[in-house]
Amino acid sequence: MPEAPITIDTPLGEVRIPFSENAVLALAKKLMKVSEGEPNLFEEAVVDFFGVNELEDTTSDWLFWEESRVPIYGYDLKGWLHQDFIIENTVGFSMNKRKTTGLQYCQFSYPHGKENIAIRASYFVRRKSDGTPFVIDLCPVDGLHLEVQIIHLPETQIKDFHESFEGYGTTDGILNGNTVNAKLQFIQIDECGWDDVVLTPEQRKSLDSNIIKFIEHIELFGEKSLPTSRGCLLTGPPGTGKTLTCSAIMNQVDSTIIYITSDDITDRGQISELYEIARKVSPTIVVVEDIDTLGGIDRNRAGGDHPILGEFLNCLAGVESNSGVVTIATTNYPEYLDKALVDRPGRFDFRIDFGLPDDKLRKHILAKYLSHFNHKNIEFKPLIKDTKGMTGAHLKEMVMMAYMESLEASGYKKNTKITQDNLEKSMKTIVTNRVKFNHAKAPNDTESVFHQ
């Protein structure tokens, strides 16, 4: 159907001007190209690749990758393209797409080493399964944020493209089986095993059953329609072994680990994003250090609902299924935690209290740390008596300081021995420092009883 002409009233009467929107648009495009000078090489390459008349005959999807996600998504994209696509061409274009500049890479660190990942590149690919063409254009903006344009034909089901990439990340992505912090940076866990942690037999059995064995046999629980998520709360004064226990657990399991400290979470939405990632690459252990400073402060103490607390509660036991995710949280002050957080199965299913070590446990800890050094004529009885109220961390530091003093006294001989005098001097220094910084034992602190 022909388009209606434009009618203009003039003193001489109506004037009708033939009008075609397509003709006007075509003329505008020609004028723009003439005025711009150099042709758009990217547009020409896309049109030629798809075999269409102009870029408008294709459709585009846009993604924005935040800087923290670029190392992960970029690595996964590289592997996914080589696995599922035939890469016909890879070109680097300038910002205005009028020049070829070569590919631009950025080097990122991964658990297996450093790799160069493309951050400015245009991939011209065809899916191996059916030959469907795509152009994937990566363009850095504001530093290392990436703008990703996916160009395809209108009849292509782009949803399948996105689901396939997400599926690759879930099963074969770089996050699987590795450890990251809340910023999704890969981190190394300190080498630590059960022999490095002082636990009662009951504590060890509880951790083994509820975390280690649970993750190893998680599919058995799913087959019986039982929850495949767990929550463990480790409580106790600073220095009693909570963090060391987390390290030991992380060294025992074969799963993805997301390690969160209280300093990492500052804004709403961060916790939800991390749990979303944890669910996608499960089985996953989410370790949350010092949850009382993360947002888990009691609502009455905080003066109303705490937004991050509410978000965390929802992540642990909300509408979204937490399948395959085990949460381990530590706190120095369990009395400050909201009851909705600690008194409901499905959020934290079991709790382990790390009290101050009793006499037998302090002797065991001292002997354990001294076993790594040469020593002579150590009389434990007075040391155990005078270290009452000290944590395992204090005792470790006590042995460390004693060794430093013995090294200095011996002229840094390799076979130097720690003496009673070395230990007593280091103990007095720690006692003085504790009084100075007001870290002496509070009357209501409990003690952990050691079972041989």
Describe the protein in words:
There is one protein chain. With about 450 residues, this protein is α/β, with parallel strands linked by helices. It folds into four domains: about 1-35; about 40-175, no CATH class; about 195-355, P-loop containing nucleotide triphosphate hydrolases (Rossmann fold, 3-Layer(aba) Sandwich), CATH 3.40.50.300; about 355-450, Helicase, Ruva Protein, domain 3 (Orthogonal Bundle). It is built from 15 helices and 16 strands. It has helices spanning about 20-35, 40-50, 70-85, 160-170, 200-215, 220-225, 240-250, 270-280, 300, 305-315, 340, 360-370, 380-385, 390-410, 420-435, and strands at about 5-10, 15, 60-65, 85-90, 105-110, 115-125, 135-140, 145-150, 180, 230-235, 255-260, 285-290, 325-330, 350-355, 355, 445-450. Strands 3, 4, 5, 6, 7 and 8 form a six-stranded antiparallel sheet that branches. A six-stranded parallel sheet has the order 9-11-12-13-10-14. A two-stranded antiparallel sheet has the order 1-2. Strand 6 and strand 7 (about 135-140) form a beta hairpin. Helix 12 (about 360-370) packs parallel to helix 14. The longest helix has 19 residues, at about 390-410. The protein is elongated and about 115 Å long. The model is unreliable at about 295-305 (pLDDT under 50).
